[in-house]
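MODEL INPUT / OUTPUT PAIR
PAIR INDEX: 1
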Amino acid sequence: MFSFFRKKGPDGQEVLTQTAPLTQPGSAPETRPGMPSEVGPATAAPSPTPNDNHYDLSQLSIEVSSSSDSISPAEEQAAMMHANGQLAAAAKVLLLDKPNFAGKRRLESWMMLFELLQQHNQREAYEALGLDFVVEFEKTPPTWREQNTVSNKKPTASGYFALSGKLSIENIDKSIQTFYQLHKNNDLLRVDLTKITAIDTISAAEILAALQQSHKKPNSLQLIGSAKFIEILKSHIEVGRRQPAEAPFWLLLIELHQVLGLQEEFENIAIDYAITFEVSPPSWDPRQAPKSAAQIASDEAQAKAEIHAAEQEKNRLIGSISSDKPEMLTRLNELVQAHATPVIDLNAIERIDFDSAGQMLNLAMDWLQQGKQVRFVNVNPLVHTLLRVMSITEMVSVELRK
C-alpha cells in the first residue's frame, strides 16, 4: 500500500525510507538461554565511500549515543514485521542488530525487543535480556507483565436503564417498552432516576405497572438516584386530599419504597394513602428483603462505580487495530470527536497493522484540519515506532507507555 514514507534523518532533513524488508548488518548476537537462536541470513551493509571532508566515527574512540530523532533500519523493519503479525521474525531482527546498539544506550531498540518478547510470551529470553539491560543502563529493566487470567465464574448479567427529563404521555410508552426488554434480558436491571425533572399522572401509572410487573423476578431491580424522584412525587400529593388523579403518585411512591427495601417507610406511606382514600393499605411483599438507608446508600455507590467502570471499559481500545476489525478505527475516531482535546489511552493496544496505520494517517490529517490536539498515551514501543515511520507523530502527540 505504501512503498516509501518520509521521515526525518539525524541531520533534520527529510529522507525517503523504503518499507520493504531490509537486510541486517552485523553478526549474530551471543545467544542466551531461552532467546531465539535461529536468524535468517544477513547481508552486510556496503562500506561507505571514503570522504576526506568527513570524520569516520567508527575510527574514533568515542561511544556515540544514538539520537531518538532517528529510527534505525532494524527498528523500522521490526516495527513493520510486528505490524504484519510476525512477532518471532521481528524479535530476531532486533537480536541480530543487538551488537550494533548494545553499549550505545539506545533505549528504543531495547524497549522494542522487551515488548516483542513479552507479546511472544518468551519470559526466559525476556529475563536474560533484562540482565544485559542492567549492565548497560545501570537501572531496573521493565517488569514482566503477567498474562490476565480468565475467571471461570460467570458474572451476573446486569443492565442499565435511565429515565430522564419531563415524563409525559408523549414519551413514556417508548421508555417503558425499553424497560421491559432490558428487564427480560438481564438478571439485574439498574434503574437510574437521577435525571427525572417532572412527571404526569399517566407516566406515574405506567412506571407503577412496570415496577409491579418486576415482582415476577424478585430482587431484580436496583434503583439509583431515587431520593430526588421521591421528592418530586411527594410534591403531587397531600394527606387527606382525595384526588383520584393523584392516586398513581401515591401508589408509585409506595412501590418505590418496596423496591428499595425500606419497609418502615413503605408502611407509613401506605397508611397515609389508606387514610386519604379510605381503602385498605397495600401490603409489603415479603420476597423483598428489608434494607437500611445506610445499606441502600452503600449499594447505590457501588452500582454507580460499576456503571462508570463499564462505561470506561466500553470506551477502551483493546487488542489489535487491524483491517479485520474496522470497528476499532471507527471507535477511535468517535472518541476523538467526542472531546475538544482528546486523550486516547492505547495501553491495551498490542498491535496496529499496516493498513490500519495508513487509515489512521488519513484520520490524523483530518483531526489536524479540524484543529484537534490529539494525544495518544501509554503507547507500546512497537506501535510507537510504527506511528513514527508513518509520520503520524507529526500530527498527533504520541507518548510512550511508562
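PAIR INDEX: 2
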Amino acid sequence: MLVAQVDFYILEKEDEESRYIFACKIAEKAWRLGNKIHIHTMSQKNAKKFDELLWSFKSKSFVPHQIVEDNTYAPVSIGYAERFCESKDLLINLCDQIPNFASSFPRVVELVTSEAKSKQKSRERYKIYKEQGHKLGTHII
C-alpha cells in the first residue's frame, strides 16, 4: 500500500456548494501545476453537477475534464460509486467514505464543511487514514 499524504481542508461554510467550489479551485490549481486529478463524488447526479461546475465556477477558467464513463481522456476525471480510471497524482474525495482505490494515489484531499455531520464523517475518515499509516495534514480555510 502506498503511504499517501492526506490533507483535510476544513471550510468555514456549511453548504455543499462551497465545498464543491473549493474542490474546483484545488483541481484547477493542481492541473495548472501539471498534475492529473480524479474527483470522486457520491453519485452520477453529483458527478454531473461537478462537471457543470468546473465549466462555470470562474468566468475565465478552463479545466479539461471528463466523467469517467466518457470515452475521451482528460487530465481531470470525475467519478462516482466505485467507478475509477487509471491512477493519477491527486484524489479529491467528495464522499462520506474512503473509496477502495484511494490507496493508489500519492495525495488525497478531503473537504469538510462546518456542518456537524460533515465533521463527524471526516473524523471517521481521519481515524482510518491514521490507522493505515498515511501522513495527515489539516488546514482551516
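PAIR 2 NOTE: The CA atoms of residues 13 and 114 lie 6 Å apart.
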